[in-house]
Amino acid sequence: MSWLILIASGMLEAVWALALSASNGFKKIAPTVLFLVSLTVSMAGLAWAMREIPTGTAYAVWVGIGATLTLLVGFLRGEERPTLVRVGLLLVLVGCVVGLKVVS
């Protein structure tokens, strides 16, 4: 169960990162509220998962999921350029996150 909570929390990390960007320096209300809610739930989920998953592993998986999803959204929106090197590095990142899960 901790792993599922950790994965969901990592996904929420991408939500709050994107909402933070959309808030325009906290000037837009809806993205700011989404940022605050998703940040709070994401951190609470990370803290919950860390009760059973070692801190380093949990944090690395959480950040990896959030960073991967945030970058993928950037690719889909056309805000980031998906070069061969960037996609390759993203695949390495995903492989590392999966590897941490496998060896834990």
UniProtKB/TrEMBL annotation:
Q: What is its main location?
A: membrane
Transport found in the keyword field: yes
Instruction: Tell me what topology the record assigns in the membrane.
Output: Multi-pass membrane protein
Segments passing through the bilayer: 29-50, 57-77, 83-103
Superkingdom in the source lineage: Bacteria
Q: SUPFAM superfamilies from the xrefs?
A: Multidrug resistance efflux transporter EmrE
UniProt keywords (A-Z) are: Cell membrane, Membrane, Transmembrane, Transmembrane helix, Transport
Q: Name one GO molecular function term.
A: transmembrane transporter activity
The answer to keyword Amino-acid biosynthesis applying to this record is no
Listed under GO cellular component are: plasma membrane
Its subcellular locations are: Cell membrane
* PANTHER family reported in the protein's UniProt record: GUANIDINIUM EXPORTER, SMR FAMILY PROTON-DEPENDENT DRUG EFFLUX TRANSPORTER SUGE
Q: Which protein family is it in?
A: Belongs to the drug/metabolite transporter (DMT) superfamily. Small multidrug resistance (SMR) (TC 2.A.7.1) family.
Q: What is this protein called?
A: QacE family quaternary ammonium compound efflux SMR transporter
- Name its species: Scrofimicrobium canadense
Q: Where is the organism placed in the taxonomic lineage, from the top?
A: Bacteria, Bacillati, Actinomycetota, Actinomycetes, Actinomycetales
